[in-house]
Amino acid sequence: MVTRRELLKAGAAAGLITSRTGRAFADMPAPATAVDFDVPRGSCDCHVHVFPDPAEFPFSARRGYTPPTATPKELLRLQEFLHLDRVVIVTPSVYATDNRATLAGMRELGPQRARGVAVIDDKTSSQALDEMQKAGVRGVRINLEQAGVFDPGAAAKRLQDTVARVKDRGWHVQMYTRLPIVSALADQLANQPVPLVFDHFGGARAELGPQQPGFDTLVSLVRSGRAYVKISGSYRASNKAPDYPDVAPLAKALIAANAERVVWGSDWPHPDAAKVAGRDPIKDIAPPLPIDDGRVLNLLPTWTADAATRHKILVDNPARLYGFASA
Questions:
Q1: Cβ–Cβ < 8 Å for 268, 236
Q2: Which pLDDT score, from 0 to 100, does residue 254 have?
Q3: What is the torsional sign of CA 236, 239, 245, 250?
Q4: Alpha-carbon distance 165 to 286, whole Å?
Q5: What is the DSSP letter of 70?
Q6: C-alpha–C-alpha distance, residues 210 and 215, integer Å
Q7: Reduced to 3 states, what is the DSSP secondary structure of residue 202?
Q8: What separation in angstroms does the CA of 117 have from each of 82, 163, 178?
Q9: Rounded Cα gap, residues 103 and 9, in angstroms
Q10: Which residues of the chain have pLDDT under 50?
Q11: pLDDT reported for residue 177
Q12: What pLDDT is recorded for position 178?
């Protein structure tokens, strides 16, 4: 099993980058496929994470996996490769409610390029929320999937408490969950005073298609304008790499429902967070999955051939949701 020390040693042979602290880290895998369509100016990747130097930004002791280092500089290189001008950094589960890494990444990339989605709890102060708003945070994430919250009652309470904290700030609430939860909370979700955003196709499974239970609820929320959905993380919904053809019907159904409530995200840097026999989730690095982000972005024109619709998904909708200036 590869440890952090071994990964860093291996990086010396492959090429290193140096952080401001002077420590060296191995580069993340670069996408292999160039973008083959006209990406409009102002396009946004609406779902990424950063994992800077863990000595400066330590992980939660209760995390479910230990990710490889993925710095803002590497994220910027990815943005440039994909011809994207904007990005939304989301605080991942490994930091619990510590949003410092996300805020540092936003600062490094600058307010013209970066916005953030934070994770909070009842101990997060109003002053901290004020500071995050000034920094460019525009929403909070409820990660029910990684937390193992599959009880609708518990999910409803989390949603209610989170909305109460942010409803007066103009923020949205982002949910990472699965379709049975979306279906069970349909009425509550349809009557929120804040925008809702569902991660990764709302937790739909590609092999089950658009007819799977709960997908109709997700489509209805999108159609009504009550919710946005991220057509992101195709590898989470499908096992058919590298082009995930069974994801296409889900993406097309959501776009057809309401193209003004769909955004795109890469889910970079794709750490393999799965529980693997023999891997210690704390001591061992979860290696990055071999996702070719250029090839995945090239799927978007196969999901919608209309350039105006792609402009909505990549530019207009993110600008509205995250408060970017008009491109």
A1: no
A2: 98
A3: negative
A4: 33
A5: B
A6: 6
A7: helix
A8: 22, 14, 19
A9: 29
A10: 1-25
A11: 96
A12: 95
According to the model, what pLDDT value does residue 275 have? 87
Alpha helices by DSSP H, the chain: 4-14, 72-82, 100-109, 126-135, 144-147, 152-166, 179-184, 186-189, 215-224, 234-237, 248-257, 293-297, 300-303, 307-311, 317-322
C-alpha–C-alpha distance, residues 34 and 250, integer Å? 25
Query: ω into residue 54 within 30 of 0, thus cis?
Result: no
Question: How far apart (Å, rounded) are the C-alpha atoms in residues 17 and 26?
Answer: 6
List the chain domain ranges: 40-322
* Cα distance between residue 220 and residue 261, in whole Å: 11
Dump the DSSP string for 227-252. EEEEEE-HHHH-SSTTT-GGGHHHHH
* DSSP characters over 263-306: EEE--BT-B--S--TT--TTTBB-PBP---HHHHHTTHHHH---
For 237, residues 6+ apart whose C-beta sits below 8 A from its C-beta are 200, 201, 204, 205, 206, 244, 247, 250
Is the peptide bond between 301 and the residue preceding it cis, with omega within 30 degrees of 0? no
Burial of 187 (0-12, 13-18, 19+ CB in 10 A): exposed
Query: What is the CATH code of the structural domain delimited by 40-322?
Result: 3.20.20.140
CA nearest neighbour of 90 among 76, 104, 102 = 102
> How confident is the model at residue 324, as a pLDDT?
96
Residues 179, 46, 313, 321: is their CA dihedral positive or negative? positive
Structure tokens at 277: 């026999």
Looking up tokens 């069974």, which residue turns up?
Answer: 246
pLDDT for 21: 26
What pLDDT is attached to residue 102? Answer: 98
